[in-house]
Amino acid sequence: MAIAVERPVEGAAQAAPPPRRRSRSRAEQRAATAFAVPGVVLLLVFVIGPAVVSLVLAFTNARLVSPTPPEFTGLENFQRAFTEDALFRRSLLNTFVFAAVVVPLQGGLGLVLALLVNQRIAGRNLFRTIYFLPVITSMVVVSLLWRFLYQEDGLINSGLSLLTGGAWAGQAWLAEPSTAMGAIVVMSVWQGVGFHMVIWLAGLQTIPEEVYEAGALDGATPWQRFRHLTLPLLKPTFVFVLITITIAAMSLFVQVNIMTGGGPVGSTSTLVLQIVQKGFQQQQMGYGAALSLVFFCIVLALALLQRRLTRDGD
Amino acid sequence: MATYRAPADRRRAWTYVPMTALAAFFLFPIVFMLAASLKTDHQIFADMDSVRAFLPVGDLSFANYAAVFDRVPFWRFLGNTLLVTAAVTALGLVVNSMCGYALARMRWRGRGLVFGLVIATLILPFDTTIVPMVYLVANLPWIGFDGLTPVLEFGWLNTYRVQIVPFIVNAFSIFLFAQYFKSLPKGLEEAAAIDGAGWLRTYWRIIVPLSKPVFATVAILTVVTSPATWNAYLWPLMTVQSEELRPVMVGVQYFFQLDTAWGEVMAYISMITLPMVVVFLVFQRAFIQSIASAGMKD
């Protein structure tokens, strides 16, 4: 790689003497500013800006289109969210339940898949490709496809009926409050687990072979080797997988938007769905911003947790 | 020899059982989608309770695909998605890599502040600011042209730029670039400066050619995970009302109706899935590598 350094740069023939240190550092300041400015401006306008606006709007009654200017309303939006808005509280609960189920399921299955395709066996690349295929499929597509599979006369029911010899009566999975969220969980794991398989796999491949050889010499069984060698060495990967799945799970939106619209009776409504419905569709921007702020605080807490966990690992 | 190896072989053979079962679990919806897209709605439901659901058998035709073209301006949608994806990815590579370069290898006042800004926005999911973002882009100025006269306009709704510009910068991309540039050997810039090359030339002629892997990684992660590229859905749904600017994923809305024509739906979602699957199969190694390196950032 370092060979490229020796490649002659155009204009090398009339090479000037090394520039004086002071002028170089001033030139460096100018150049660095020019390099960083486009990114910094875009970051300020489209990331920091909306975050600050959100922080301000959350304490007002602003509407997306309104003849009257927004008024400062203090904590009213938050009060409304946590005391009056039953659908919001339900959505918050749903979001946490979804995350609590999806995180161990997806993280665990991802690790199992990674262990399977990490074996030295023929065809492991083919299996890895197949397990990864849903990740390449857009969540929009996946949601529509599974909506069809989950229908009362859909493939899931006919499959279950076939397996039980006709004993399974069949049900509309997404239309029942008791099964709708579970159905979305299964589909979300199906779509996302390949992504985390790859991350686990990268973690597994950082473990040197000698560690296992030493373990085998000490007479450790495969389970002991997994429990006492593999798992501890995977800790950094573990934290990353945990936090990325959790943040993604907390952002649950597309699936419910396409499959259930948050129903039946609010059983699949989520935090982001509420933000979009209140803040955008019902144009209550101040209220939507307040809900966004709640969401932001949760994500921030998770990020701080990640920093803490990784620091402990050092 | 054969008897000696038998136990290991048998154990190995057994691992194919769960692996194959899992492969079936991950493949069955996709195979079903492709098979159903070729069948009439009547046949889709008739085949549902047998293995025929997964097989291209019976009265097959491309009628569903033809019907898709009647229902949505497919090529227009696909063109929009490709244009926005290419623009967000290409501009993102330039802007984020230059910012990452300044952070990683240059000494300047304000560097610490900008680095703090990048780290602070690293974890901010796009959904948390989506409501004020809509408000913001509805009021942003832009210099348009009336003939040759520049005109100051307000509002970005219903444009390509609203689908592109807000998503160019990405803190995670800047971070990945900065990490990679830091790993390059020291002294590259000094050598180039002695040869009389300025910063831009050094960056373009020396740093970029040495950094192809990170450019590939960021490009792939942008296409696969950005909310504005191939998978763009919520944002264009909220900000783009005119049909001729819509991307493919928003096109699924055209198939929501009381009596869903499932054959057509399966055809449409096959059409918007297969291009990406083909790209993935061709560049598979790079895809896997990119995602793996995203996880290795700590």
TrEMBL record, chain A:
It comes from Glycomyces terrestris. InterPro entries: ABC_transporter_permease, MetI-like, MetI-like_sf. The lineage of its organism: Bacteria, Bacillati, Actinomycetota, Actinomycetes, Glycomycetales. Residues 1-27 are annotated as: Disordered. Residues 92-306 form the ABC transmembrane type-1 domain. Belongs to the binding-protein-dependent transport system permease family. It is found in: Cell membrane. Keywords: Cell membrane, Membrane, Transmembrane, Transmembrane helix, Transport. One of its GO terms (biological process) is transmembrane transport. PANTHER family: ABC TRANSPORTER PERMEASE PROTEIN, INNER MEMBRANE ABC TRANSPORTER PERMEASE PROTEIN YCJO. SUPFAM superfamilies: MalF N-terminal region-like, MetI-like. One of its GO terms (cellular component) is plasma membrane. It is a multi-pass membrane protein. This is Sugar ABC transporter permease. It comes from the Bacteria. The chain crosses the membrane at residues 31-59, 96-117, 129-149, 180-202, 233-254, 285-305.
UniProtKB/TrEMBL annotation, chain B:
One of its GO terms (biological process) is transmembrane transport. Pfam families: BPD_transp_1. PROSITE patterns: ABC_TM1. It is found in: Cell membrane. Keywords: Cell membrane, Membrane, Transmembrane, Transmembrane helix, Transport. Residues 78-283 form the ABC transmembrane type-1 domain. CDD domains: TM_PBP2. Its main location: membrane. It comes from the Bacteria. It is a multi-pass membrane protein. The chain crosses the membrane at residues 16-38, 81-104, 113-138, 158-178, 265-283. Belongs to the binding-protein-dependent transport system permease family. This is Carbohydrate ABC transporter permease. It comes from Glycomyces terrestris.
